[in-house]
Amino acid sequence: MLSCLPLMSAVLALSVAAVPASAQDYPNKPARLIVTFTPGGGADTTGRVFGERLSDLWKQPVLIDNRAGAGGSIGAEIVHRAPADGYTLLLATNTHIINQVVYSNLSFDFIKDFTPIAIVTSGPMVIAVNPAKVNVSSMREFNALMLKSQGKLSYASCNVASPHHFGMEMYKYTMKIDAMHIPHRGCAPAVADAVAGQVDIVVATLPPAMPFFASGRLRPIALLSAQRSPSAPDIPTIRESGIPELKDFSLESYYGFMAPPKTPAPIAAKIEADVLKIAAVPELRAKLSGAGMDMMVLNAQSMMKLVRADYDKYLKAGKTANIRPE
Predict the structure, then answer these.
(1) CA-CA distance, 309 to 135, in Å (whole number)?
(2) Per the domain annotation, does 199 fall within a domain?
(3) 10-residue mean pLDDT series, the chain (326 residues)
């Protein structure tokens, strides 16, 4: 038995050394970032900006793979089934938390199964109207029209059970109004239909909508977030409307990174450190702000605290407003 001790010690030493070595070698091949929405929205903007910077830092391509559908669950399932080696990542959003609330047939638990990396951006959500169809300029005017036009107006959201859908349905429930929901497979097509006059109203993240505010083809009414956005400081929030029922109303939309279940801790820590390093670059912050995105930087531990808290909030709100997949 004594003669085996040197061999056992050597094997143990090698196994211990292998863990940090895997992180030191990472990445040594291209990585893939699954974005569960179509190009042009807040998720895609965040994914492409960070993907480009990660490619530069890692000296390896980070390929953006847009997999829209089922409210983001199709793309999340791809990451859930991927090898736990750090080479397939999810551009996670709070849409995935909402999916966990409203869908009963998911093959994974978003709250428990994925490996958190970091939250990096927030995409303020805006209610906007086609001014040729809806002649209002403020949240008070918009609210009065909605109360008067019960069920006659239509609104586009970026997806079924998205934060945009969730936010508008919570507003409808709070104010006891009705409007027809027209879900889309991403914010860019939702905005495009509003610009074209196919729908009256759109609830979307700022990036795809902002160019049309400048041209006057869309008119911003209010942000759903609790505070004004640094990237669009002139757009007021719903809370600022002075409508008593909406004084505490807010809903945020944020974006970050997650890895498959059981991703080795050293690799997850390496990705987290690199993502947070990139998030601190002033030029990147300026680029995202110009695209209508705000920075919202949380490490893996803080990310999961927020995810769990939002799950509880969405679960309660979904039951209260009877929000279901369509």
Answers:
(1) 38
(2) yes
(3) 43 42 84 92 92 97 93 93 98 93 90 97 95 97 97 93 89 94 91 97 94 96 95 96 95 95 97 98 91 94 96 86 72
